[in-house]
Amino acid sequence: MATSEFSIPVDHPALAGHFPGNPVVPGALMLDEIVAALASSGGKAPIAIVAAKFLRPLLPGKHCSVEFSPQQEGRVQFVCRSQDQVVASGQLLVEVR
């Protein structure tokens, strides 16, 4: 199992519309960070997002850790935690050679 970390800065341009006065990190931005984290942790680059569930909002500037667990058939399970709570989980499909 590999682990990676990321944080979205409070001044990130994607936060402007999510939501004024009470910003949260958009799910698409989280997925982008999760995909990049898998690639930078030595895993294979994902070719598809099989499933993703957003369970709690991720707040800008807050630390987020991502745990990756290999599954069968070229899939990688991910779980994201922030402030000791699961904020997202899902599966990525990676190229099998």
Oligomeric nature of the chains: single chain
**Most strands sheet:** 5 strands, antiparallel
**Structural domains: how many:** 1
Count of DSSP helices? 1
Between the first and last Cα atoms, what is the distance in angstroms?
A: 20 Å
Could you name the CATH class? Alpha Beta
Name the overall outline: elongated
Radius of gyration: 13 Å
- N-to-C series of helices and strands: EHEEEE
Helix amount: 10-25%
Spatial strand sequence of the major β-sheet: 1-3-4-5-2
Strand content range: 35-45%
Mean pLDDT: 92
Task: Find the structural class using helix and strand composition.
Answer: mainly beta
At CATH level 3, the topology is: Thiol Ester Dehydrase, Chain A
The tally of beta strands, per DSSP, is: 5
Stretches where pLDDT is under 50 for at least 5 consecutive residues are none
CATH superfamily: Hotdog Thioesterase
Assigned CATH architecture: Roll
Short description:
The protein has 97 residues and is mainly β. It starts with a strand and ends with a strand.
Task: Explain this structure.
With 97 residues, the chain is mainly beta. The protein has a single domain (2-94), classed as Thiol Ester Dehydrase, Chain A (Roll), CATH 3.10.129. The chain has one helix and five strands. It has a five-stranded antiparallel beta sheet, with helices on one face. A hairpin with a 2-residue loop joins strand 4 (75-82) and strand 5 (85-94). The longest helix has 14 residues, at 27-40. The model has no long low-confidence stretch (mean pLDDT 92).
